[in-house]
Specification:
The complex is a heterodimer of chains A (104) and B (352). By secondary structure, chain A is an alpha+beta fold. Helix content of chain A is 16%, strand content 21%. Chain B has a 6-stranded parallel sheet, covered by helices on one side.
């Protein structure tokens, strides 16, 4: 399975993903710039991504915890998700996300 | 009460000790234990107002599964257990302060100063600063730095400073709501900006805010901040984007963004420790930096094979303590003892 990631410069990366991995872990594993400070605990909002609308409906909806945590992210839109809360599955092959602007 | 059982010093003053530990996260706390077994005293500095570091700030309620002997423990529980474990050693804490400089005192010891005006002196410094200091997140808005401290603030130090101003507060948590409620009575106008009509703040604060908005004494905009207008650090307007009305500008002369905390290395980067990608290189025998008598343990250090795990930091602290002893007690013999069998260790722990 593959995750397609657009970075903050607009460059597109095809990342080989593993079933069951968090999208954040895959992005971090490839060395793309994602802070993910809390390490995937849904506790910091520094792995914020925008999910391509065609894929959004296929994802497990955000939990209340994730929605609350997104309050600590910037430029939140309806496409916003925390990538540590998206688990890769076979049917998400080709999932396209864009890294959100990062606060300093 | 938090910190009630700890020896916490007020900012200011000068203290002498054996080891200065920068960072009171799990690794800094356990270092107190390993140093304590060798009769070395420690003072800890932390920017947070309580011990625990990331465990306390990021995931107090989250379970951790890879602490040896504790199949499941939350960040706060681990912090509490470490505090219990190191209690016999009476560590001294300096909270809500950032280590600002590390220089040589005239007698050869290190002198570490904080932004709170505290001076600590010791022969050994241990940097256990994890991912850095927790500082407020800054919005990714071009040019925001020019306004910081003049009309953009990440904390309120003096409320009076905001009297009669057109204030915009951004965020949806307790800090945003609390300051909106506290500053509203003295502001000329107060607008809360949040990206949704939902809040993670206490319900009674949300109700109070909505009542004020209902009375027209506060404004609430569902929008994102996209830019700033003004000159010479003085804000005149905040650019917003909302789904229903697109881009618009709100007149304002003060902006307070509250988006939680993030980790930044801070002044430790200027301590002359040959940082590489924001990490401090150390050896794997003593976890000493390129500067003798200065050590780095936990997530902030780097060496071949390093794993950023709490348990690695515990090990690093144990080995660091051995070398710290040699520096602090050059005329004494270092003896390796087990807590299971050594009466002298058990006395130190208060169990014999």
């Amino acid at each position: 399975v593959k995750v397609v990631v657009t970075d903050r410069t607009g460059q597109v990366h095809d990342l080989e993903a593993l079933d069951g991995w968090r999208v954040m872990e895959i992005i971090r594993d490839y060395g793309l710039p994602i802070k993910a400070e809390c390490g995937g605990a849904c506790a910091c909002a520094t792995c914020h991504v925008y999910v391509d609308p065609v894929w959004a409906a296929k994802l497990v909806p955000a939990s209340e915890e994730e929605i609350d945590m997104l309050d600590q992210a910037f430029h939140v839109t309806e496409q916003s998700r925390l990538s540590c809360q998206i688990l890769m599955r076979e049917d998400l092959d080709g999932l396209h996300v864009t890294l959100a602007p990062d606060g300093a | 009460m938090k910190n009630a059982h700890l020896t916490v010093h007020q900012p200011g003053g000068t203290h002498d000790t054996d080891v200065i530990i920068i960072g009171a996260g799990p690794v800094g706390l356990f270092a107190v234990f390993e140093l304590g077994l060798l009769d070395l005293k420690a003072h800890l500095i932390d920017i947070l107002d309580r011990p625990g570091g990331q465990c306390a700030e990021l995931y107090p309620e989250k379970p951790i599964y890879d602490i040896p002997g504790l199949p499941i423990v939350t960040g706060q529980e681990l912090t509490d257990k470490l505090l219990e474990q190191i209690k016999p050693f009476n560590a001294q804490y300096h909270f809500s302060q950032m280590a600002e400089s590390m220089t040589r005192h005239s007698d050869g010891r290190w002198q570490v100063t904080t932004d709170g005006g505290t001076t600590l002196r010791a022969p050994v410094v241990v940097i256990a600063a994890g991912g850095g200091s927790f500082v407020p997140k800054k919005p990714p808005i071009a040019g925001i730095e020019a306004y910081e401290g003049k009309s953009v603030f990440y904390a309120v130090r003096k409320m009076e400073q905001f009297r009669g101003r057109d204030i915009v507060i951004a965020g949806g948590g307790d800090s945003a709501l609390d300051w909106a409620l506290n500053l509203q009575p003295i502001a000329k106008s107060l607008t809360l900006v949040h990206h949704r009509d939902g809040f993670r703040a206490a319900q009674h604060s949300v109700n109070q805010m909505k009542a004020l908005v209902g009375d027209g004494r506060m404004a609430f905009h569902i929008a994102n901040i996209t830019g700033l207008e003004g000159a010479d650090g003085q804000l005149t307007g905040v650019k917003l984007n909302a789904k229903d009305r697109g881009d618009y500008v709100l007149q304002a002369d003060a902006l307070l963004p509250f988006f939680g905390l993030t980790m930044k290395l801070g002044p430790v980067a200027e301590f002359g420790l040959n940082l590489h990608e924001n990490l401090i290189p150390v050896d794997t025998e003593k976890f000493e930096t390129s500067t003798p008598t200065v050590f780095a343990i936990g997530d902030i250090n780097a060496y071949p094979g390093k794993l950023k795990l709490i348990l690695s930091g515990f090990h690093e602290g144990a080995l660091m303590a051995q070398q710290a002893f040699r520096y602090c007690r050059p005329n004494e013999r270092l003896r390796f003892q087990y807590t299971t069998s050594s009466t002298s260790l058990q006395k130190k722990l208060g169990v014999a």
